[in-house]
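Aim 2 progress update. The chain analyzed this quarter is reproduced below.
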Amino acid sequence: MRNRQGQLLCIAEFEANKRGYFPESVLDQARYKRAQGRIKRAEARIEEAEQELNPPQLIEYQPSIELPPMAIIQPEHAAIEVAATVETQAIETQPENVSPIIKRPHFKSTIEKYTWLMNHKRTWDAQDARFLMKYVDSHQYFDMLQIYSFDGISWTKTDDETATNLMQQEEELEEPEEAAAR
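Predicted structure tokens:
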């Protein structure tokens, strides 16, 4: 480099005053920390290999400790016994051929409806049978089939026969009504 009069001030070399972005001590710390981590991971692998060679011993049998017997104090059940006898009398007086009335819930999805109907087969009517026959042929049923099988509510041949009979009974009842209307 020269000044305005042309005198030589100094000779500038390419990247002669180059410095790193981080001070050298920070880089040394990072290298040390990285090396410590690698050593720790290697030690963990060594310990794991040693444990595979020497598996831990099994727990030895220890005799059980006997606890003293416990005394259970029973509360008075007079009111409960009276209620239980009234309930049993009411159940005994109900005719055998009449099933109890089951309130049908409002269904939020076809999956929920199918599940409820399969758990309450005695409540099926012709409309339910039509729904079930249509649902069993749908992609949604096929997607849910594994879950239904696990829950024990998958569609069976007996269910198919029951639904078909219900629909036939409804058709037989409608035929005389249509003839009378003509």
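The radius of gyration is 42 Å. The chain has a mean pLDDT of 80. These observations will guide the mutagenesis experiments scheduled for the next reporting period.
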